[in-house]
Structures are given as structure tokens and as C-alpha cells.
């Protein structure tokens, strides 16, 4: 007990070099964590954009399956989700462009591509989402 009291009453403490070393080590650890968190935020944002684009593509394909005449109204139309702009583009392939099986089943192939922020697919931009589906051929 006496040694504990002596230790508390002594004027010894940490030296300046020890404090600077501790601060340096702590700074290195904190900076590495900050870098990790900033990368995870960027990745999270990218994944959110891709999922939103996929949901928009599914929604557009579903509505086109219900009413194929709606294709032109969706091509290049701006859709705002999560405070971002998305632009769906729809292509329908039929007849000779399809396989024999698809023609025998009276199906047209539909490709829905959704671009985020850039509405022009001819600029060789990669779509945020691309979805393939089929609709019944119109007689």
C-alpha cells in the first residue's frame, strides 16, 4: 500500500517524446479507419445506384409486358429516384433476329437498359442496369 501511495505522490509522468509517440500511433490508426469508412461510403452509394437502376428496369419491363404500346413513352424518359436521374431505353427484337424457338412461341425479346445521369446510350456509356425479357408478339 505504501508503494502505491509513493507512486501517486511522485512527480514522475510521461515525457514529451512518449506523448508524441502515442499521438502518432493513434493518428496512424485513426487515419486508416477513416480511409476504410470513406471507401465503404463510396461503394455503398455505387451499389445503391445499381439496385435502383435494376428496380427501374424491372418496373419498366413489367409495364411493357402489360402494354407493349408504351415502349416509345419510356424510351429516354427521365425517371427521378433517390434524388438522381435515370433514363431507360428499350429495344425490342422480333422475327429474323430471334431463334426458331422464340418465333415458334410467338415471343419478342425485350432489352431494357437504364442509364444513370447520362441519357444518351450512343456515347458508348455503360448502362447502370440491363434487363432481358420476353413479351408475346402482337398479332
TrEMBL record:
InterPro entries recorded: N_methyl_site, T2SS_protein-GspI
Topology with respect to the bilayer: Single-pass membrane protein
Transmembrane segments: 12-37
Localization terms from the record: Cell inner membrane; Cell surface
Keywords: Cell inner membrane, Cell membrane, Competence, Membrane, Methylation, Transmembrane, Transmembrane helix
Main location: membrane
Family: Belongs to the GSP I family.
Record's protein name: Prepilin-type N-terminal cleavage/methylation domain-containing protein
Source organism: Alkalibacillus silvisoli
Lineage: Bacteria, Bacillati, Bacillota, Bacilli, Bacillales
Amino acid at each position: 500500500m505504501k508503494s502505491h501511495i509513493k507512486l501517486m505522490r511522485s512527480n514522475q509522468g510521461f515525457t514529451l517524446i512518449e506523448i508524441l509517440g502515442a499521438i502518432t500511433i493513434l493518428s496512424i490508426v485513426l487515419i486508416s479507419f477513416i480511409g476504410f469508412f470513406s471507401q465503404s461510403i463510396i461503394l455503398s452509394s455505387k451499389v445503391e445506384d445499381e439496385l435502383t437502376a435494376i428496380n427501374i428496369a424491372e418496373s419498366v419491363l413489367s409495364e411493357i409486358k402489360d402494354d407493349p404500346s408504351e415502349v416509345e413513352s419510356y424510351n429516354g424518359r427521365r425517371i427521378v429516384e433517390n434524388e438522381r436521374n435515370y433514363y431507360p431505353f428499350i429495344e425490342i427484337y422480333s422475327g429474323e433476329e430471334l431463334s426458331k424457338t422464340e418465333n415458334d412461341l410467338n415471343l419478342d425479346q425485350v432489352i431494357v437498359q437504364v442509364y444513370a445521369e447520362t441519357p444518351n446510350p450512343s456515347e458508348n456509356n455503360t448502362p447502370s442496369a440491363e434487363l432481358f425479357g420476353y413479351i408475346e408478339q402482337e398479332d
